[in-house]
Amino acid sequence: MGKLTNPLQALIGKAANCLPTCTGEVQRVRARLETPGAGTVILCDASASMAERASNRPKIEILHDALRECPAEAVYLAFAADVRQFQREERLEPNGCTAMHLGLRRATAFAPMQTIVISDGCPDSEQSALDAAEHLPGRIDVIYCGPDSDAQAMDFMRRLARGQVIVCDVMRMSRPELGSALKSCLALPAPREGG
Q: What domains, with CATH codes, occur in the chain?
């Protein structure tokens, strides 16, 4: 008597032999998502817009307070006209334009498992930022800290994300909400036992 074949398995096997070969771009994306390094990069907007007042304080001050609750071992990068690494306790002076793409490129050098982008969602070039994000390994969580009436900025931040998207309008809220948003992004699932 002949060997019985599951029709579904036969169909899957046949289809697998007909699949096109992966392009270089597909392989780069797969490698980016499957081989992240360790750790977290927290990428902070330090452009001139962060000097705007919210809850009677500059937005940058609200950001500083929220960062105090983050792990010291994270890598902290600030972007404005250029990018610089800073210590969690350091004070940032907002100025210049919003070269988010430079911040994302710099974050790539750390091969992070997670990148958290905190911004009001108005980069100098949305496309340059999205292109730079394509090279980042791991997940990208975003905290939008601009006005919740700016649909275009929120849409950009959603397109940038590969993880959580949190809208935290600091013009209406205060430090605890931004701190809670950061804690939520940092709460990665616990590793499985034996894994």
A: 37-186 (3.40.50.410)
| Partners of 117 in the β-ladder | 43, 142
How far is Cα of residue 192 from the mean position of the Cα atoms in its chain? 24
Does 74 have pLDDT greater than 60?
yes
Higher pLDDT, 192 or 14: 14
Q: For every residue of the chain, which 3-state class applies, written as one string?
A: CCCCCCHHHHHHHHHHHHCCCCCHHHHHHHHHHHCCCCCEEEEEECCHHHHCEECCEEHHHHHHHHHCCCCCCCEEEEECCCEEEECCCCCCCCCCCCCHHHHHHHHHCCCCCEEEEEECCCCCCHHHHHHHHCCCCCEEEEEECCCCCCHHHHHHHHHHCECCEEECCCCCCCHHHHHHHHHHHHCCCCCCCCC
Cα(23)–Cα(68) distance, integer angstroms: 44
Q: Amino acid letter at 171? A: M
Please state, in angstroms and rounded to a whole number, the distance separating the CA atoms of residues 29 and 134: 8
Token pair of 126, please?
Answer: 């949305």
Q: What's the pTM value of the predicted model, to 2 decimals?
A: 0.77
